[in-house]
């Protein structure tokens, strides 16, 4: 029996990278997964891969910054699977502009996805989950932050701002749902540098080769390498499962020791 047997999970940014590895792992562990991504093609590719492996899935292209899309994804999830037990806000965007060169358009785009998207995901998760019976295991909200939620780095000031915001907002969600008596937990997940298209794009923006970055990682990261997406997905699995039933309002860092120095 899988670690998420009988649970339904909505996961954004699920078309690639950490999000896709997470939906694949969750499905393998018995969850019904709702695959959400702004790219319809990525959603369909992920859906086909998971259902071909006999996983239970629903494909739902969406823009996390549009509140109507959140209404739709919960409505479809409830119609197909009955209730939602886990929401993982994984969709995110980055930018490598120096602060002095950051335009208002860049600021708006990064904040819209990384902050507004997480806010809307949490809002609609709470609206759906707040009447969850007390005799059921708690529902789980997982907000994907970053090591940038702990420490500052050059050329990613706005990204860092948003990821720090995700970290503290997750704590506020956890405190509020507890005070209101809702059977919900909320935690933030903090990946370090991970082998994903988004991370590779950030290197390209900075004209840094993968080989050169590997040397930087060896000096800065205690494990001397980037993470594989599945390694982050296993952290999400723990937060989604009842194994983390005594964990709320805090962070899970999977950063290879990056923030330890």
How would you characterize this protein structure?
Keywords: Oxidoreductase. InterPro entries: NAD(P)-bd_dom_sf (IPR036291), Sc_DH/Rdtase_CS (IPR020904), SDR_fam (IPR002347). Belongs to the short-chain dehydrogenases/reductases (SDR) family. With 261 residues, the chain is an alpha/beta fold. The protein has a single domain, classed as Rossmann fold (3-Layer(aba) Sandwich), CATH 3.40.50. It is built from 8 helices and 7 strands. The chain has helices at residues 17-28, 40-52, 67-81, 104-129, 157-179, 197-205, 210-220, 229-240, and strands at residues 8-11, 32-37, 56-61, 86-89, 139-144, 184-191, 251-254. Strands 3-2-1-4-5-6-7 form a 7-stranded parallel sheet, sandwiched between helices. Strand 1, helix 1 (17-28) and strand 2 form a beta-alpha-beta unit. Helix 3 runs parallel beside helix 4 (104-129). The chain is globular. It starts with 7 loop residues before the first strand and ends in a 7-residue tail after the last strand. The mean pLDDT is 94.
Kindly give the count of domains: 1
Strand-pairing-aware structural class: alpha/beta
Number of strands: 7
CATH superfamily: NAD(P)-binding Rossmann-like Domain
**Assembly state of the chains shown:** single chain
Helix content: 40-55%
CATH class: Alpha Beta
Which of globular, elongated, flat, extended, rod-shaped describes the shape? globular
- Count of DSSP helices? 8
- The CATH architecture: 3-Layer(aba) Sandwich
Instruction: Give the strand content.
Output: 5-15%
The mean pLDDT is: 94
CATH names the topology as Rossmann fold
- Physical arrangement of strands within the biggest beta sheet: 3-2-1-4-5-6-7
Summarize the main sheet.
7 strands, parallel
Q: Which stretches of 5+ consecutive residues score pLDDT under 50? A: none
- Spatial extent as radius of gyration: 18 Å
Pfam families: adh_short_C2
Protein name: SDR family oxidoreductase
Family: Belongs to the short-chain dehydrogenases/reductases (SDR) family.
Keywords: Oxidoreductase
